[in-house]
Structure formats: structure tokens, C-alpha cells
Design a protein that fits this description.
Elements: E1 2-6, H1 10-21, E2 25-29, H2 33-40, H3 51-61, E3 64-67, E4 77-80, H4 95-107, E5 113-116, H5 124-132, E6 137-140, H6 150-155, E7 160-164, H7 167-176, E8 188-191, H8 193-224, H9 228-236, H10 257-270, H11 276-298, E9 305-309, H12 324-334, E10 338-342, H13 347-353, E11 358-359, H14 362-368, E12 371-374, H15 386-391, E13 396-399, H16 407-415, E14 419-421
Length: 428
Amino acid sequence: MKIAIFGTGYVGLVTGACLADKGHQVHCIDISEEKIALLKQATPPFYEPGLKELLQRGVDSGRLTFSTTPDISGAQVIFIAVGTPQSPNGSADLSAVFAVAHTIKERCTKGQVVVTKSTVPVGTAHILKTILGEDIYVASNPETLREGAAIQDFMSPDRIIVGAEDKEAFDALREVYSPFLIRDQNRIQEMNCASAELVKYGANTMLAMRISFINLLSQLCTHVGADIRDVRQGIGSDYRIGMHFLYPGPGFGGSCFPKDVSSLAFQLREAGVDPALVSATLSTNSAQQHHITRTILEHTKDSEAVGLWGLAFKANTDDVRDSASIFVSQQLLKHQKKLYVHDPQATHNYLKVQPHATTTTRQEMLKEIDVLVILTEWNEYRTLTQEELTLLQGKTIVDARNLLAREAELKKLREHNITYVGVGMRAT
């Protein structure tokens, strides 16, 4: 099947590379000449595990091509996968989506199917239909990818959401996803466009709520002497609840949760529905970031140098958008702290936002800092070597991910007289 994709960000590029790997002929379009030049050399413009190899296979096979020219001739399905950033009023900015729609309108032919992969508010498909006209079919196919596990999620989806109003659109998307349905035809869930558009916002907001809720409990644990590790285990063992997204930390970030929760709150207000529950998710997340920062400052009153391990908003990505590291850094710099930072992948993106920090290796950092702060759950931060424990100049670790909250690690910290401060735990 011949497919065109507008946008080569996380969603568009992963979608294109995976579809090409399954045999489709995919042409990816982007306005950035620099990005397209990289992609023609099978070089991804961001870090995502496994993407480099997937791109190389697609480019070498000729099934995956890239251009700044919006050529959609012969494409049976056209995906829109451009950004929908948050506007000042909290709504989703759809200017890029509509710009692509007008570009498609100038070049489309009767019977083509235009599909939104971008996260868009309810009613967007209806507007696109108005722009594109009756001869073009419109569908909604929201992405369900986790940064850091995007390829795995695309290749082995737990469900594929398809919203449409026409049999032709449903048929086309069934063909697109047929290689992913061989073992389970029920993976594809069909509904109308409005329902599909709302699924993405509902799912992301519910997950964000779980994060905010466990973080709220972690703050209570700190005050009443409970241990969030035990509380989480007790709650998550209830089969109705489960353990997913019940990990306390420095608050959620990234390109999806903050803006999607904000957009859903806006949509609720516009519909005359009280958004209090959704809005509380955002305010609780902000409160958690302030709480983590206060905790760090409480242990750096007489200290000047702070080391941050982890700058990406989550592990296995180089994305720092709305990362806790950005907020924490800004607050620490306001208090005249000297910052040393380390991250396996995200340092270059972090420095674009926060240049007033010193980058160094893990080991060299430990010689300079008074307090070590762990902000991202990279696997390499889950243990400290004996050498690193000896090198740690200050004797305090603030672990905003509870990565070291295992008895074997805590024992090593005690042996080196290091104060350990986890989330929702008593300092040890």
C-alpha cells in the first residue's frame, strides 16, 4: 500500500519506519530541510531505541523515502502527524494540522483517505472534512506510543483505535494495519471520529491522574511516617487497580501528558462540564515538582554544588520537554546553586534550555558536589559502585525516583555514612 505521512517527529517517523518495515511504501514529508537531509542518510533526529536500525532497513529497501516536497500522488492513505502544542489558554494549537490539510486539499484526488495521527480535540475530524471536501474520506487514528518504547508499542499494539464515518476509511485502515492483526483481529477497535479523538485524551489524562495521585500520597507519607513503597504495594495489589503508573517521582512531563491534560480541561470547560478533577491533576503535578525542589533545598542549605543525574523527562529518550529537570534546575539556580548535570542521551537538549550548568561524567561530578539528585529512571542510575560511593564529596543523595530504595543499595549507603532521601520515605 502506498502511504504518505506529514511530519517526522516521534509519531510520524516511528509510524513511517514501522509501516515500511511491514512492507508498505511510505513517503514521509517535513518542512525541515535539515531533518530530511538526516533522514535520507537513515539518521534519526532524536533518540529512540531501535529506530536507527529500522530507518536503515527502510531506506536500504527503498520502501521508506523522505522529502520536503508534499507529493501525495498515488497515496491511498495520508497521515497527518504534526505537532499540536499547548496554546496559552490551555487548548491544543491546531495551526500545523490545518496548514497540512490545506496543502493536501491543493493536491488530493478523489477517494484518498486522510488520517489524523496527531493528538487533536474532539471535532477536528469534522473541521478537516469541511476543508477537504466530500470526495476525501477523513479518519482519526490516535497514536498510542510511549517514548522510549515506541517501536515495541507500534509493532505489538494492545489496541489500534480507528475512528471514521465511512466504510471506505475503515477498509483502508484495516489494510494499513493488516500486518499487525494476523494473530489478533480484535486489536483494531472501530468507532466514530469523535469517540476516537476523545480516547487519546481520556487515556493520557487517566494515566496522569494516577501519577499525581501516588505523588500526593507520597507527600502524605512524608508527614505521617508511612512508607510509599508499602502503600503502593498494598494499593496496586488490588486487581482492580494494578501497579502501572503508580510510581512516585518528580511529576510527569514530556510532550503528551501536560498538554493533553490541559487540552482536555479546556474541552470540558468549553462544553460546560466542570473540569475540577482534570485541573487538579495539573495542580498536583506542579505541587510535586515544588515539593521535590524544597526537599533538595532542605538538604543544601549550606551547600553550593548540586549534581543532577537524569535530564530527560523519562528514561530511554532524549526529550526534555516539561522535564522535572528543567523546573528543578531553574529553582536551584535562583538559589545560587552551582549545577553539575549528567544524562546518557538528553544533555544536548537540556543545554539548549538551560545552558548555565556544567556537564561532566558521573564520577567527576561526585568529586565536586555536595548533594546528588536523581531525577530520571535510567537503569544505569539504579546502583552506585564502591568507587562512586567513595568519591561522593557531600554525603547526601536525594532520589526523586526511589531507584536506590532497595535494601542492598541502602546498606551500601549506610556503610558509607550517606544520607538517603527518597520520595515518600523517611530519610535514612
